Amino acid sequence: MPDDKPTGPLPPDHPDWPLSIEPPAILKELARGAGGTIDNGEAFVLPDGSGFATMSMPLPRDHWLTQDDGSYDPPPMRLRMGKGARTMILQSAPDEPPRSMTVDRDELAELIREAGRYAYRANTNKGKVEDQDPDSFLQNLVVGLLGYWTDDGRTDDEWALPIHERGKREQR
After folding, report:
1. Distance (Å, whole) CA 138 – CA 64
2. Cβ atoms within 10 A of the Cβ of 20, count?
3. Do 148 and 155 contact (CB within 8 A), yes or no?
4. Model pTM score
5. pLDDT 10s digits, 69-108
6. Residue 157 pLDDT > 50, yes or no?
7. What's the CA gap between 116 and 126, in Å, rounded?
């Protein structure tokens, strides 16, 4: 065996991480059994010896997205607002004074569009992934509208905060 070929795990700073490998037989069998495919036909090994692969699977037959009874699906309109209508949103969180925000239909529609754009970009890795999970999209939409699943909807990771909230950690 040549001396330049590693005999054990590569050092964490090796330039080839993650290493692309042929998916192990067990992964191929799992994908086939689930009716799915391993994306790009490759798996990866990480510096610690663990590995991963991304698998795409069809939606279950009873998934909400594909349910079709032949009728038109009317929108639920749970927050229905007519033109020119205004609404006040009162927010309260533990250990924070209540806040309110008044918006009209156009402003609220733009807030929802902004959250929708975030959700679509997050769900498709900024347009790079075509095979989408509709449930993941909805989870991202909820985060885009309401914030993270924490007590105050925020995160301690500065990079993951909206631009208008960055640098305000001390104000929390």
Report:
1. 12
2. 11
3. yes
4. 0.62
5. 888 877 777 778 888 889 888 888 777 788 888 999 899 9
6. yes
7. 13
pLDDT per residue over 121-153, tens digit each? 998 888 888 888 899 899 999 988 888 888 778
DSSP the chain: --TTS-SSPPPTT-TTPSEEEPPPHHHHHHHHHTT-EEGGG-EEE-TTS-EE--EE-PPPTT-GGG---SS------TT---TT-EEEEEE--TTS--EEEEEEHHHHHHHHHHHHHHHHHHHTTTTT--S--HHHHHHHHHHHHH--SSSSS--S-GGGS-GGGTT-GGG-
Cα Rg, the chain, nearest whole Å: 23
Both tokens assigned to 117: 């754009």
Residue type for position 149:
W
In Å, what is the CA distance from 31 to each residue of 9, 38, 66, 138?
27, 7, 22, 25
Three-state secondary structure of 61-82:
CCCHHHCCCCCCCCCCCCCCCC
